[in-house]
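User: I'm writing a tutorial on reading structure tokens. Could you give me a worked example: one chain, its sequence, then its tokens, then a sentence or two explaining what the tokens reveal?
Assistant: Sure. Here is the example chain.
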Amino acid sequence: SIDFIYAQAGGTLIAMTTNFIINNKFTYRDMRLTGTGFILGLFSFYLACSVGAYINISLSSFMFAHDVYWAFAGVMGAFIGSVWNYAMTATFTWKKPKCR
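And here are its predicted structure tokens:
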């Protein structure tokens, strides 16, 4: 009974937070962020993912408004947004230290 755009936005925020925690624990465990770094990293992750979230919500809402099944519209928006998010967070949130 929730409007599609609000459900997609809420799901996107939950997915971004969960994805950050999983990436921090497993994917980038050699550069794990802790303490204040964790909080700053989370906000950096949100910032880097904000364009991907916009792409996700815009694309999925457009598809849903054009009679695409809600689950397919949501998955397609999430997929396209994820490609952007991976590239941005690998570059900005968990950037590898420069070799000297």
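What the tokens reveal: The CA atoms of residues 52 and 84 lie 5 Å apart. The first helix runs from residue 4 to 27.
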